Amino acid sequence: MLRAVLADSHDISLRVIPTKYPSGGAKQLTYILTGKQVPHGGRSSDIGVLMQNVGTAYAVKRAVIDGEPITERVVTLTGEAIARPGNVWARLGTPVRHLLNDAGFCPSADQMVIMGGPLMGFTLPWLDVPVVKITNCLLAPSANELGEPQEEQSCIRCSACADACPADLLPQQLYWFSKGQQHDKATTHNIADCIECGACAWVCPSNIPLVQYFRQEKAEIAAIRQEEKRAAEAKARFEARQARLEREKAARLERHKSAAVQPAAKDKDAIAAALARVKEKQAQATQPIVIKAGERPDNSAIIAAREARKAQARAKQAELQQTNDAATVADPRKTAVEAAIARAKARKLEQQQANAEPEEQIDPRKAARRSGYCPCQSTQAGTATG
C-alpha cells in the first residue's frame, strides 16, 4: 500500500529492513540505512543525517501545516490484565488510571504496570501519573506473562552482554564501574551512549538487571555534573565579587590620593589668605625702623599689649580663686567630713601611743654578766685584802 502511494513521489524512498530488536533506535537505524556510525557522545545530525520517527513526523505536520499544537498522542494499551487492549488517542496529562479503567483493567494482588515496552519500560510507582509526550505504551502483564522472579547472581564474565549490545559497549565493565561508584571510568567507557534497550539484561545468564544499574549510574553522574556546574557558578560569582571589591578599593584609594593632592576650593582660599598674611608680615619686618635724633621710639602699643595680657592673667586668676572659694563655701558637708577624718586620725595616734608597752626593767645581774663583772669576785677580793 505504501509503495502504491509513493509511486508518483520522486523525493521519498521506501526501504524495508529486517525486524530485529532494537533496529528502531535512531543510531542503529542510521547505521542500517546509511552505513554511517554516529560518534560517541554525538547525534545523527553530526554526520549530516536527521532521524525522525513516525510520531514526531506526524506531530510536525500537524504543527506546521495544520497549525495544531501537540495536545495528544497515540498510546498502546496491552497486557493480559486489560480486557480491551488497543491503541487510543490520549490527551497529554490524562491519568494512567483513567486510561486503564476505560480499557477494562482487572488488576491482580501484585499487579505491575509498565510504561514503555517489555525491555525498555519501567514500572510505575502509582497509577495517578499523567500521560506525557514520551508515553507510547502502557503494559499491564499478568503473573503468567512475567514468569517467576529469578535471583540475581554474580557475573561470570561470559561476554554475552557485550555481544548483544547494539551500541558496541562493554556492559560487564560498566556494571562493575556502576556498582563500585567509579563514575570517571564509567564516563570514559561511554555509559552515556547506552540506549537502555535491555538486550544485555535479557541475555545475561546471571539474571543481573544491568539496565537498572546503568540508569542509576547515569542519574548519579548527571547529579554530580549539576553540582559541579553550581560550584563553578558560585566560584565565578565569588571571584567577580572579589574583583568588584578590589576595583572599589582601588577607586577609593585613588579618590583619597586626589583629595590629598588637590585641596578643596575653600581650603585653597584659606591657604591663599594665610600666605598673604605671612608675606605682609615679612614685608613689614624687612622695612627699616627710622628714629630721628633726639626722639624716643614709640613703644606705647607694645606696653599697652603687655599690660592687657597682665590684666587678663590677673582677672583669670581672680576668677579661679573665687570659684574655689565658692566651692568651699557652697559645700560645708565636705568640710565637716574632712574635719571628722582629721579627728579620727588624731584619736587613733593617741591610742597607739597609750597602748605602747613600757620598757623592760634592767636586771643588774644580767647587765653585769653582759659587761663581764661578777659581784662574787668583788667580795672575795675584799676579804683577801682585809
UniProtKB/TrEMBL annotation:
PROSITE patterns: 4FE4S_FER_1 (PS00198), 4FE4S_FER_2 (PS51379). Binds 2 [4Fe-4S] clusters per subunit. Residues 376-386 have a biased composition (Polar residues). One of its GO terms (biological process) is electron transport chain. Residues 221-248 form a coiled coil. InterPro entries: 4Fe4S_Fe-S-bd, 4Fe4S_Fe_S_CS, Ion_transpt_RnfC/RsxC, Nuo51_FMN-bd, Nuo51_FMN-bd_sf, Soluble_ligand-bd. GO terms for molecular function: 4 iron, 4 sulfur cluster binding; electron transfer activity; metal ion binding. Residues 345-386 are annotated as: Disordered. Residues 147-175, 185-214 form the 4Fe-4S ferredoxin-type domain. Keywords: 4Fe-4S, Cell inner membrane, Cell membrane, Coiled coil, Electron transport, Iron, Iron-sulfur, Membrane, Metal-binding, Repeat, Translocase, Transport. The complex is composed of six subunits: RsxA, RsxB, RsxC, RsxD, RsxE and RsxG. Belongs to the 4Fe4S bacterial-type ferredoxin family. RnfC subfamily. This is Ion-translocating oxidoreductase complex subunit C. It comes from Escherichia coli.
